[in-house]
Amino acid sequence: MANWTASDIPSLHGRTAVITGTGGLGFEDAKALAEAGARVILAGRNPSRGAAAVEQIRQLNPGSDVCFEQLDLASLDSIDAFAKRLGDSDSHIDLLINNAGVMTPPQRQETADGFELQFGTNHLGHFALTAQLLPLLRKGDQPRVVSLSSIAARQGAIDLSDLQSTRDYKPMVAYSQSKLACLMFAMELQRRSNAAGWGIRSIAAHPGVSRTELLPNGAGKWSAAGSARRLLWFLFQPAAQGALPTLFAATAPQAQGGAYYGPNRLSETRGYPVLARTPLQAMDLGMARRLWNESERLTGMSFPAAPLRVTKPYQLFP
């Protein structure tokens, strides 16, 4: 894993990848996977931005097999429609990267289904998407699901009594909870895949502190966070570097199911992919199952029943 880069990605010819999010990290993921020969489906809300991303990737890598599909993770109807279109057009999916996200809008907002926007998009939307695409993933060749967490998950806590932050909305608290949920989902998905024999390798990753539009888009261009991102740009590593832990998790033969990858330097804020420090709260098996059950109830989505047994967490790093 020493200084692993996108040039270490093995050939992906014949493999199909779905990536949520058309800019920033999602764009970098798509560009790298397409260059390695994968067929890439880039999914996002904005068709014009999606078309621009596809065109740029094709210009950078002529002959790339990349396309855009509309998907709004803040709408269960949109997720359902997207999954049905893929079911009609594709026989399998080999890789799903749950990348798109919303970060710290200053005022509480809701998805089309009434969920708090960050929890509803970052976690519940990807939870529902993975459930919908599971039949196609199980037909894939050594399929993987990579879910994006954040170093903010270290401060996260799952509040089952107020998952939607209706009592007291604090932007970063809600964001940290959503990203902790993404991490716990990735680890629980691996446990359930093992128990049920789905054959899916589920892995979590985080990008450190990267130069994307996530902060300005969420908090606002002129917010304190948005201004810091714009004026202190040199503190943020390039998006292509931030994408490396995700790409490692998605493609490296040595990437472990149930593991968590992030950058290797300055408290995991930048650098090359290594095993990340997993927050203790992410390894609470009881909470992971309760969160899973509540996520099924809220989204109306269900995964095939799997016999559950108590197992040790996959990682326990200091």
In a few lines, what is going on in this structure?
The protein is an alpha/beta fold. The chain is built from 10 helices and 10 strands.
Q: Note the total helix count.
A: 10
Number of strands: 10
CA-atom Rg in angstroms: 18 Å
Uncertain regions spanning at least 5 consecutive residues: 220-234, 310-318
The CATH topology turns out to be Rossmann fold
CATH class: Alpha Beta
Name of the CATH homologous superfamily: NAD(P)-binding Rossmann-like Domain
From the spread of the alpha carbons, the general shape counts as globular
Cα distance spanning the termini: 20 Å
- Biggest beta sheet summary: 8 strands, mixed
Spatial sequence of strands, sheet with the most strands: 3-2-1-4-5-6-9-10
Notes on the protein architecture:
With 318 residues, the protein is an alpha/beta fold. The chain has a single domain, classed as 3-Layer(aba) Sandwich (Rossmann fold). Helix content is 41%, strand content 14%. The chain contains 10 helices and 10 strands. It has helices at 24-35, 47-60, 76-89, 117-138, 171-196, 214-219, 224-231, 239-242, 244-251, 285-299, and strands spanning 16-20, 39-44, 66-70, 95-98, 144-148, 201-205, 210-211, 237-238, 260-265, 270-275. Helix 4 packs parallel to helix 5 (171-196), helix 4 (117-138) crosses helix 10 (285-299) and helix 5 (171-196) packs across helix 10. The two termini are 20 Å apart. The model is unreliable at 220-234 and 310-318 (pLDDT under 50).
